[in-house]
Design brief:
The complex is a heterodimer.
Chain A (H helix, E strand, L loop, with lengths): L2 H32 L6 H18 L4 H24 L6 H23 L14 E4 L2 E4 H23 L1 H11 L1 H6 L4 H23 L10 H15 L4 H21 L2 H18 L11
Antiparallel strand pairs in A: 1-2
Helix pairs in contact in A: 1-5, 1-8, 1-9, 1-10, 2-3, 2-4, 2-8, 2-9, 3-8, 5-6, 5-8, 6-8, 9-10, 9-11, 10-11
Chain B lengths: L2 H20 L6 H24 L8 H17 L5 H23 L4 H21 L1 H4 L12 E2 L2 E2 L3 H24 L1 H11 L1 H6 L4 H27 L9 H14 L6 H15 L7 H15 L3 H16 L5
Antiparallel strand pairs in B: 1-2
Helix pairs in contact in B: 2-7, 2-10, 2-12, 3-4, 3-5, 3-10, 4-10, 7-10, 8-10, 11-12, 11-13, 11-14
Classes of the chains: A mainly alpha, B mainly alpha.
Amino acid sequence: MELATFVQTLANSLVLGSIYALVAIGLSLAFGVMRMANFAHGEFYMVGAYVVYALYALAGWPFYAAVAVAVPVVAVLGMLTERLIFRPTKSNTLAGFMATAGLAFILQVLAGQIWGVGLAKQVPMPIVGATEIFGALISTQRLTIIPIAFATLAALWVFLYRTKWGRGMRACSIDPDAAALQGIDIRKMSLLTMGLSGASAGLAGALMSPIYSVTPYMGHGVVLIAFIVVIIGGMASVEGAVAAAFIIGFVHTFGTTIWDGITATMLGVAFMAVILVIRPQGLFGQNPV
Amino acid sequence: MNTSKTLQFALLSLAVIGGMILLPQGLGLYSVELLNIFLVNVILVCSYRMTVTTGDWGLAHIVMMGVGGYSAALLAKDAGFSIYLTIPAAGLIAAFVAYVMSLPLSRTVGFGYFIASFAIAELVRLSWLKFDTLFGGVRGLINIPIGKVFGYSLFDPVIYYYLSLAVAVICLMLMFQIDRSRIGIVWRSLSTDADLARSGGINVSYYRKLAFMCGSAFAGVAGALLVHRLGSVDPKGFDLTTMIYLVIWVVVGGTGSFWGPIAGLIVMTFFFEWTREFLAWRPLFFGGILILFLIFLPNGLDGLLRKLFDKVTSRGGAKQ
C-alpha cells in the first residue's frame, strides 16, 4: 500500500471510528446505567440524519444549525422511548429490547411515509474541497467530524466523572438500590440516560448525513456495528466502547480498501467471536456479558 | 396426563390431522400455496420456541433455516440428492453449523446472547453473499430440482402440501416428545434459574448448546421444505426483518405452552393477509403489536387464554 493510500485510509478509519464511538457510547451508556438495551438505536441515528436532510437540504438552514436541532430532537425521542417502552418493561431487559425492535419498524415506516422510500436522499456537502496530508487528499467535511466527536466524547467524560449528575448515573449502574437509598432519583436518571443516548446517536447521524446517503433503512448496518463494538469493548464499559469503536473503524476501513465491504463486516464479526471465546467479558468489561 | 386426557388429546390430534388432509380439496391453488408456507412456518415457530425455552432469545434462527435451505439446494442441484435425503441432511447440516456457532455464543447470556447471535448469524448470511461461486451471491441459487414422491411430481402444490404436512407432523411429534422429556424439563429449568440448575449438577453450557442445535436442526428442515417449494433461495429471505417477524409470531402466541407459538402464527398470518392493502404501513402495525404485547400481555395469547380459563373455572364454582 502506498503512503498516500495508507494515510487516506488511516484518516477515513479515524472518521469512521469517531462516528462508531458516538453511536456505540449511547448504546453502552443506556445498557450500563439502567440495563436498557435499545434495538432502535440505529433508527435514532437515521432520524438524526433525516432532521438534517429536512432542515438543511430542503429548508435551506445552515448545516450546523440543522445539526444543533437534530441533537435535541433525537434526545426527546430517546426520553419518550424510556417513558413509554423501557419503564413499563423494566422487569425484563429482553422484553424492552424486543419492544424497541418494534419501535425500529415504526420509525422506518414513518420516515419512509414522510419523505418517500424510493431513491436515497442526497445531502449536499456543506464544506466542499479537500485537505492535503502527506500527498493524500481527504475531504474536509469528513475531517471536521473528528474534532467534533472528540469534543463530544470529552464532554461526556467530564459529565460522567466530574459532575454530581454523572456520579449519580454511575452509582445507578453499579447498584440501583443503593443509589436509590442515597436519594438518587432512579427514574430521572434513566430518563436522562436515554436523553444522552439519543442525543449522541442523533449527532452521529446528523454529522454523517452529507457523507452517506440518507434512507429509512440506514440504521440497520449501524446498529449491527454498534452491537459488535459494545460486545468487544465490554458491555456497559464506556471506555471499552470508545476503544472498540476505533478498532472496528480500522478493521472496516482497511478491510474495505484491501478487499470489499462484505469482507470488512465479516472480519469485524469474526473478531467479535474470537474476543467472546478468549475474553467473554470484553476488552474493558468487568463481568461476563 | 391420565388415560382419558391422553385419549382426548389423541382424538383431537387425529381430528386436526384429518382436517388438514381434507383441507386442500375445498381450496384454490393460491390458498394451498399459502398453506405450504404456513406448514413451513409452523415447524419454524415450534423450533424457535424450543431454543427459547432455555431463556436464550436469539436472533440466529432464521439464518439457521437458511443454512438448511442452502444445504438442500446445493445437495439437490450439485449432488443430485432426492428430496427424501435433502430434507434430513439439511437438518443435520444446520445442527452442525449451530454447534460451531454455539462455541462463541455459549459464552454470552441474556442481552449479550441476543446481540451476539444476531452478529454471528449475520456472518453466516454475509458468507452467502461473499462466496458467490458456491452460493450465488445476491441473486442466490435458482432452478432447484423439486423431484417426485411415489411417482407424483411435487410441482403440483397439493402433492407438495401432503409432503409438507407429513414432514410437519413428524417434526411436531418429535418436538412435542422432546419438550415433555427430561431434556425439555432441564431446558425450562435453565430459564427459571440457571444457577440453581448448575448447583443441581446440570451442565448448563451443554444443555444450552443442545437446545440451539436441536432447534436449528428443525429450522433446517423447514428451510429445505421452503426452498424446494420456491425453487430458489437467496440471502434476502433470511434477513433481520424476517427474523423480527418470527419473534413477533412467537411473542404474540406466548412461549408458555407448546401450542402458543402456533396460535400466534395463525393469528398473525391472517393479520398479514388482511393488511395486504396497506403494504407500506404493515411493519408499523406489526411493530406496534409487538410493543403492546410485550408491555400488556408478556405471556402472549397463551397466557391470556390461561388467565381467562382460570377465571371462568374458579367463578363457575370448580373445586379449586
